[in-house]
Amino acid sequence: MKDRHNHIAVIGGGFGGLAAAYEIAREGAARVTVIEKQEQLGGLAGSFEAGGAKLERFYHHCFNSDRHIIELAGELGCGDRLVWSRSRTGIYLGGEFYKLSTPLDVLRFGPLSLADRIRLGSLVPKARRVRDYRDLESVTAEQWLLKLCGKEVYRVVWEPLLRGKFGRYASEISAVWFWNKIVLRGGSRGRAGGEVLGYYRGGFGTLAEKLAEAVRAFGGTVRTGVRVKGLVIENGGVRALQTTDGLVEAKIVISTVALPILAELLEGAADDEYVAGLRRIRYLANVCLVLELSEGLSDIYWLNVNDPEFPFVGLIEHTNFQRAEIYAGEHIVYLSKYLEPGAELYQMSDEQIYEYSLPHIERLFPSFKRGWVHHYHIWRSRYAQPVVERHYSGLIPSHKSPVEGLYIASMAQIYPEDRGINYAIAQGRDIGRLAPGALGR
Fold first, then answer.
1. Quick check: 403 and 266 in contact, CB under 8 A?
2. Which is more confident, 41 or 187?
3. Structure-derived torsion over alpha carbons of residues 166, 168, 171, 175, reported in degrees to the nearest 10
4. CATH number for region 3-60+203-281+389-438
5. What per-residue confidence (pLDDT) applies to 1?
6. Contact, 87 vs 321, CB < 8 A?
7. What span, in angstroms and rounded, lies between the C-alpha atoms of 208 and 222?
8. How far are the Cα atoms of 123, 165, 222, 224, 433 from residue 333, in angstroms, in the given order?
9. What's the CATH architecture for 283-386?
10. Do the domains 283-386 and 3-60+203-281+389-438 match in fold?
11. Taking the model in full, what pTM does it have?
12. So where are the chain's domains?
C-alpha cells in the first residue's frame, strides 16, 4: 500500500497523457504508469503504414506558432525532424476549384464581388483585434461572421463549411471556436503571405513513440493494449483502476480520455450530478477515408468542399505537403467527415464507405480512375470534435475533480483553443506539474 501513495496512473496514451507522464517522470515527482487501450500510442495521431512509411490515421500538421510541439521536439533531441513547407489551400464551389492560399488569391476569388472579396480578406485582421475571447462567448459563429463579412460572404464561403462540419449544430457553434481557427491559421504565414505548415518527418505517431521512450528512460511505465474498465473510489478518493490486465493501484489518476468515457468509468462510483455534467458536452464522431493512389488529384493540399452533395467536408492531399517519394511514390489523400455516430455513413462497413465515396470523387475529378487506387483505409473516431457552443467555458469541468486524487485533462478542456497536438502537450505538461502536489496529502 505504501507504493500506491507514490504512484500516478494516466488513462490514455495520446499526446496529453504522454506529456503528463513525461513531466512527472522527468521531475522524479512520482512513479507513473500510462495505460492505453490501443496497441499504438498517439491518439488521433496514431500511425499506420502507407507506402512503407508511417502515416497518421487522421491527417495532422502543425503551425509555426505551435511552440509546445517545437519545444518538446527540441527537448527530445528530434527538433530537426520538424520540417516546414508552404501549403496550398483551396475551395471547391459551383463545380470549380479556387485557390485561397494568399491575399492575391482572395482578390481573384470570382464567386464574390470585389467588395465582398475585400470583406473576406479583411476577416483575419479584424479577428486579430479581438484581445479577449470572452467578448465572443455569447455570440455564435454565424452572428459574428455575418457582422464582419456580410451575408454574401457568409452564404458562399463560411455557411457551407460550418454546416459541413457541424451539421445540425452549425448555428450553435460559438464565435470563439471560429475566431481561434482564423487567428491560428492566419498567423502561420510566410513573408509572401502564404500559409506555412509543419510536419514531423516519419509521422507524428513517431513523435509519440519518442515521447514514450523518454517516459520509460526516466523510470515511467507505458502499457498498451490495456483497457481501463472502472475506477475504484473509497472514502471520496481514488484507490485504483480496474483494467483488463488486473488492478492498478494509484493515489492519483489523470484521465485524458473523452469526458463521456470518463463518465462511464465513474458511473455508480461518483456523484450522479457530476457524472451527468461530464456528459453535457456533446461530441461529433469522424470518418476518415485514406487513399493510396498512383496519381495525384490536384496541386492543392487542403481543399474545402462547399458542395452539400459531397459527403466529405475536407479533402486533404497529404502528398501535396510531403513528397510522394516518402511513401514509395504513392499519392496520399484523406477524405474527412465529422458526423453524429448514428449517421448512416458512420454505420457503413469499410467497403461500403469506399464504394459510396468513389462516384463523388469521380464527380469532382473527372480524370480520376478507380485503377489509381492501390489501397484504401477507413478510420473512425467516436469522440473526434467537441461541439463548442456559446458560453462553453461554463460547461468545462475543472482539471481537479471532486473525487480526491482524480484529475482531468481532455481535448474538451483545451479552450479557447481547439483540439490539437500542440495544446494537448501544453495541457498535459501543466497537469503533470499540478497533480503530484496532492501526493503528500
1. yes
2. 41
3. -20
4. 3.50.50.60
5. 39
6. yes
7. 12
8. 29, 18, 32, 29, 39
9. Alpha-Beta Complex (3.90)
10. no
11. 0.93
12. 3-60+203-281+389-438, 85-196, 283-386
